[in-house]
Write a structure and sequence with these properties.
Helices cover 50% and strands 5% of the residues. It has eight helices and six strands; from the N terminus they run βαββααβαββαααα. The radius of gyration is 21 Å and the shape is globular.
Length: 254
């Protein structure tokens, strides 16, 4: 079957409100996160302040990592160990159904807002390269699960200091980050499909029904969890970085 490109008829913008404000703020937020994540990965320093590990570098898969929790890559890897990990959560977010809506509207104007025409003159959906790669979202979901498990391990390890068990401000920061990422991950549509997909009825499958209902409730707040978890990753990395540099003294709460 051949794929047809549907022409988009020009429609004049008849809105007089500040419809461009929302897409502009979204574009700035997404661009700011990408810029910060790239900068943090390129630094290859100040990502570990015992017992805190930046989420951008977790899990540590390279032997040159300050905390080689799982050194699958040997000394031949000389780049930042963050690049061995970031492509997984990055791909998961880039193909996420909510983030597609966010950057389609803000960056590509497809469409920018209701009653505003597309910037492009044709529309072929997600049937052509590179947009056909959006179908990889469910596979990025499964790849994200072990990364999420390591983030929880890092959060639990943040209770263990050199002089024994305790709670610092960084402990709470890493735990909050892991919790928000969990809510975002398990609220995605791929998780709903894993719970209720390939079923015509939940009859006789009460466990899958309960799981699907729980994930559906999370999915209703998927936008909020998406932005909150995006911010928490930046806050967690920045906090660990400032503690490592000696700019901030991590207070021990317990």
């Amino acid at each position: 079957m051949s794929i047809r490109t549907i022409p988009v008829l020009p429609v004049p913008v008849q809105r007089t409100d500040a419809w461009h404000a929302g897409p502009l703020l979204t574009a700035l937020a997404l661009a700011g996160f990408v810029a910060y994540a790239l900068w943090a990965a390129l630094q290859n320093a100040h990502y570990f302040a015992p017992p805190y590990l930046s989420p951008f570098y977790s899990p540590c898969l390279a032997a040159n990592c300050a905390l080689a929790s799982m050194p699958l890559v040997g000394a031949g890897w000389t780049l930042s160990p963050a690049f061995l990990v970031l492509w997984i959560p990055g791909g998961f977010r880039a193909t996420c159904y909510y983030y597609r809506k966010a950057y389609y509207r803000s960056l590509f104007r497809a469409p920018a807002a209701c009653a505003v025409p597309d910037a492009a003159g044709t529309y072929s959906g997600e049937s052509r390269f590179p947009w056909v790669l959006q179908n990889l979202h469910r596979y990025f979901f499964y790849l994200t699960l072990p990364v999420l498990a390591f983030l929880w391990w890092d959060a639990l390890s943040a209770f263990r200091f050199s002089d024994g068990w305790g709670v610092g401000l960084g402990t709470l920061v890493l735990c909050a980050n892991a919790a928000l990422l969990t809510l975002y991950t398990f609220g995605c549509n791929s998780c709903r499909h894993a719970c209720g997909g390939r079923l015509d009825s939940f009859r006789g499958k009460p466990a899958r029904l309960r799981a699907w209902r729980f994930v559906t409730r999370l999915n209703e707040k998927h936008r909020e969890f998406a932005w909150a978890s995006l911010a928490s990753v930046v806050v967690a990395d920045l906090y660990v970085r400032l503690v490592s540099m000696g700019v901030v003294v991590d207070p021990r709460l317990i």
